[in-house]
Write a structure and sequence with these properties.
Layout: H1 35-48, E1 63-65, H2 66-79, H3 87-103, E2 110-112, H4 113-126, H5 128-146, E3 153-154, H6 156-167, H7 172-182, E4 190-191, H8 192-204
Antiparallel strand pairs: 1-2, 3-4
Helix pairs in contact: 1-4, 2-3, 2-6, 3-5, 4-5, 5-8
The structure holds calcium ion.
Calcium ion binds next to strand 3.
């Protein structure tokens, strides 16, 4: 799965940011969401929603449901050889349920792309501590499962397996950029706190330099030099 191009802080030969004159349109509403944050929430949505690429995009809105989170938990448990209903699987489900409840405060059961972004934005404004706690809990559960050899570090192999199972990342670009950007001290392994920082930054940071922005893969180099799908 490939993220759309968004050339955050990528400078052209003239020192200007390509595409910066044509940023993605801010969502309508009283409090527009930061474009980078919106890009990340779209990325999360696309990685988790159970809809084959290219289907349902026009006629039927694609919606994220808790079922999508259940499927992610099942994929992760299975990838690391935990049975359905195992302690590890149930822990993941509990963490994802906690996060889902923060998304779906209205109890609608399904959130399209706009609604999902709006719900996370609302949680950031009104329930930031709860959102960060939920993200941290989920991160703990995922890291504990992925740390197969129990050395309290995630090797590149372990982290790639987690991303592939939980978020269905399958491109070398995504897997490589996600891992290498998160390894802040260039130690060659990820410490738990590096992954925690990344998860929290992914959901909260509006700083283009935050490594956690690329938790699910970094932006691709522009093809054709016109700023990708957001620019023209
Ligand atoms: Ca390890």
């Amino acid at each position: 799965m490939s993220p759309p191009v968004w050339p955050f802080r990528r400078r052209g030969p003239n020192g200007r940011t390509p595409g910066s004159r044509t940023p993605p349109a801010a969502p309508t509403g009283p409090e527009p969401l930061d474009p980078l944050l919106r890009w990340k929430l779209d990325r999360w949505f696309d990685c988790l929603v159970d809809a084959p690429s290219g289907t349902g995009r026009r006629s039927t809105p694609v919606r994220l449901t808790f079922r999508d989170y259940e499927l992610a938990a099942t994929r992760v448990a299975r990838a690391f050889r935990h049975r359905p209903g195992s302690r590890e699987h149930r822990r993941l489900l509990a963490c994802l349920r906690k996060l889902w409840r923060l998304h779906d405060r209205e109890g609608t059961g399904a959130l399209d792309r706009e609604a999902f972004a709006a719900c996370v934005a609302r949680a950031l404004r009104r329930e930031r501590r709860s959102l960060v706690a939920a993200v941290n809990s989920l991160c703990c559960a995922m890291v504990d499962i992925a740390d197969v050899d129990g050395d309290s570090l995630l090797s590149e192999r372990e982290y790639r397996a987690l991303l592939a199972a939980g978020f269905r990342l399958d491109s070398e670009h995504d897997l490589r950029t996600a891992y290498r950007t998160l390894d802040r001290d260039n130690s060659g392994t990820l410490e738990h706190n590096e992954v925690h920082e990344a998860f929290v930054e992914f959901f909260t940071s509006t700083d283009p330099d935050s490594p956690g922005n690329w938790l699910l893969g970094g932006p691709r180099p522009p093809h054709g030099g016109r700023g990708g799908p957001y620019g023209s």
